[in-house]
Amino acid sequence: MDIKQLRQFVHLAETLHFGRASEASYISPSALSRSIKQLEEEVGAELFERDNRSVELTAAGTLFLNYARDALSQWDMVRTQLMERSGELQGEISMYCSVTASYSFLFEILSQFRTNYPKIEMKLHTGDPEHAISRVIAGDEDFAICAKPDVLPNGLAFKPIALSSLKFIAPKQGLAGHPEHLLRPNNQTPMILSETGLARKRVDRWFKEEQIKPLIYAQVAGNEAIVSMVSLGFGIGVVPEIVLENSPLANTVDILPVKPELKAYEVGIVTLEKKLKNPLISAFWSQLKATL
User: Which residues contact 147 (CB under 8 A, 6 or more apart)?
Assistant: First the structure.
């Protein structure tokens, strides 16, 4: 099968939008449609259900997506091995991280790598850190910067790059009562917490161990938004210290001297162990030892 055609299929399967997929493939939507139709005829099954409003993968399309990703991964591996023999690596790798992580770590991670491997391009995607590991496992990204979970999923390699503590924060103008009383068992101070993720798991565990039943005012996707809501006086929040250090609103909140402190977590880079056989992935992974 045509490698270019497989990439076009993967673009459409990931975006489910002919316009965006055609832009990523550098062809027109009509050309992409013809390419997908030709691919469907070749495999003998419909890969997408599509009408004027939506595009969805069929069961056959989902199965074929796994094949396409594996085939492209194998092709990239062979191609880079051949380039490695010629003496110079070139190609593309992708990374996913939060906006905060991009501020905090990317310069140190990429500066030496770019010098040593100028022909390897880095494609960066930013978003909710909660999705980082799942995107790597799904094959959407080669690497991700994330907090190390309590149990790392099988098949993943993790390299720590920083340690971040979790902090209770309150607005500068204060809330009713004194900071040292805000988290007592019978207190009804409004809390602003993450919807999901490692920070939420650890703060929930902390409340349970301290026998505190929190009054949750808001559950927020994104730590930066927690800092914003706390600065406006809506309640107490819990955020990683690294987020606070990079927030433009850091001077509008105070860190509360809460004891015992929440357990800190490791921030690091994660990839699939099987991808480390790829010379491009291996080059980046090995470079981390020298730069961090």
Answer: 129, 164, 197, 198, 199, 240, 265, 266, 267
Query: Which of these three, 40, 58, 87, is where a domain ends?
Result: 87
For residues 207 and 228, state if they share a domain: yes
Q: What confidence tens digit (pLDDT) does each residue in 141-187 have?
A: 899 999 898 888 999 999 999 888 999 999 987 664 444 455 555 56
Q: How far apart are CA 186 and CA 244, in angstroms?
A: 28
| Pair of tokens at residue 177 | 């009562």
What are the CA-CA distances from residue 5 to residues 20, 21, 36 (Å)?
16, 12, 8
Residue 10 has a CB neighbour count (10 Å cut-off) of: 21
Show the domain range for 187: 166-263
The total of other beta-carbon atoms located within 10 Å of residue 256's CB is: 17
H and E: helices and strands count for the chain: 10, 12
pLDDT in tens, 263-283: 888 999 999 998 888 888 888
* Verdict on whether the full-model pTM lies above 0.85: no
Please tell me whether residues 196 and 259 are part of one structural domain: yes
Which of 68, 87, 106 delimits the end of a domain? Answer: 87
> pLDDT: is 292 or 263 the higher one?
263
Q: How many domains does the chain have?
A: 3
- Pick from 279, 268, 273, 287: which is nearest to 93 by CA? 279
In this structure, are 79 and 3 located in the same domain?
Answer: yes
